[in-house]
Hints:
Blueprint: H1 2-17, E1 35-39, E2 43-49, E3 56-65, E4 68-80, E5 83-91, E6 105-112, E7 116-125, E8 128-135, E9 140-149, E10 152-162
Amino acid sequence: MRVFTLIALFLTAPFAMAPAAFADPGLEDLRFLEGHWRGGEGFVFEEIWSAPEGGVMTGMARGVASGELRFLEYILITDEDGALVMRFKHFNADYSNWEGEDEPLTLTLTEIDGADATFTADPPTHTVKSIRYWTSGDDMLQVDVAQIENGEEGGFTLLFKRMD
């Protein structure tokens, strides 16, 4: 009986130890972003994300300081041949855009683990190297933006509280 048990364990071990099949991430995996997020003091920053629908997830961000609009940002995340692609542009209060006539900034989802998603630009565009959105599930969202300016790496972090 002992030999039979060892043989059974040996024969089934590769199947039992094999990792679960990896599924390509989809827009539903980014549902943790959905809703209204707000943060900051003095300079208030907020993002509002729609639910994934029609093959797209949309976001809007705005920055307000001293009661005045400082900028807007419009964001699209689409599923393109199994890759999640983020595109966005920044706008001034007069709706002129920061990027001028250039194409929108484009990043691709490179890592996702639950409510932790990183989009990366390859190569970095307009100083943006990557953007990581993550939450620990406590109605707080952290956004880490890695940048490259004049060959130097830097960046900033935004902290948001869920408003809805």
